[in-house]
Design a protein that fits this description.
TIM Barrel, binds pyridoxal-5'-phosphate
């Protein structure tokens, strides 16, 4: 997997070290994650809290970095604030406030990405581009959260040029925020099917499930 990311970075004229692999381990049992950790993978992404909690508990001895990439529900923020180092899917001020209030003090600030809604699609979360500024202001004002960047899940596209257009839009939104005084250093974009397009447009984290672990049920 690392070889594919490195090839994508090189052909985009980027340093491969700028692109991190987040191994998306949803539906994978703890022993599969443990094997990946033993092979050197440190960062893992989970979507479903109930599934993640048991897995995280049984892998606690490994000191891995866990990223929450599923839809955030207001009544489930405590588990995320307590067990994860990163959240990729923040899209509402009310949830930002709860995560801030529930982040344990021994843990250090929670690293946060705002999920951007690039197109109107039923069932997908995200903040619309015209509301990003105000959400970024709210998050920047919360001491237990650290605003690190943006994340997107674009509509499925088969053509690379169309894939790239969604990722480029996300990068431009991050650039806009930085021009207004934020210091975002992270773009979480690209999955198994479109990571090359995402890396070409500046992704710093690619979220890969199938291409790491094989197909899910
Ligand atoms: C499942 C999932 C992924 C990984 O998808 P693959 O196509 O298996 O690489 C990445 N990001 C999110 C938000 C996901 O839910």
């Amino acid at each position: 997997m690392r070889a594919r990311i490195e090839a994508a970075a090189r052909s985009a004229g980027r340093d491969p070290a700028e692109v991190r692999l987040l191994a998306v381990s949803k539906q994978q049992p703890a022993d599969v994650v443990r094997a990946a950790a033993e092979a050197g993978q440190r960062e893992f992404g989970e979507n479903y809290l109930q599934e993640a909690r048991a897995k995280l508990a049984s892998l606690r001895d490994l000191s891995l970095s866990w990223h929450f990439i599923g839809q955030l529900q207001g009544n489930k923020t405590r588990e995320v604030a307590e067990d994860f180092q990163w959240v990729h899917t923040l899209d509402r001020g009310r949830i930002a406030q709860r995560l801030n209030d529930q982040r344990p003090h021994h843990a250090g600030p929670l690293d946060v990405l705002l999920q951007v809604k690039l197109a109107e699609e039923a069932g997908k979360g995200g903040v619309s581009p015209d509301e990003i500024d105000s959400l970024a202001e709210i998050v920047a004002g919360l001491p237990r959260l650290r605003l690190r960047g943006l994340m997107c899940i674009p509509p499925p596209e088969t053509e690379v040029e169309r894939q790239r257009a969604w990722f480029r839009r996300t990068r431009e939104l991050a650039d806009d925020l930085n021009r207004r005084g934020h210091s975002l250093d992270t773009l979480s974009m690209g999955m198994s099917a479109d990571l090359e397009a995402a890396v070409a447009e500046g992704a710093t984290i690619v979220r890969i499930g199938t291409a790491v672990f094989g197909p899910r049920d």
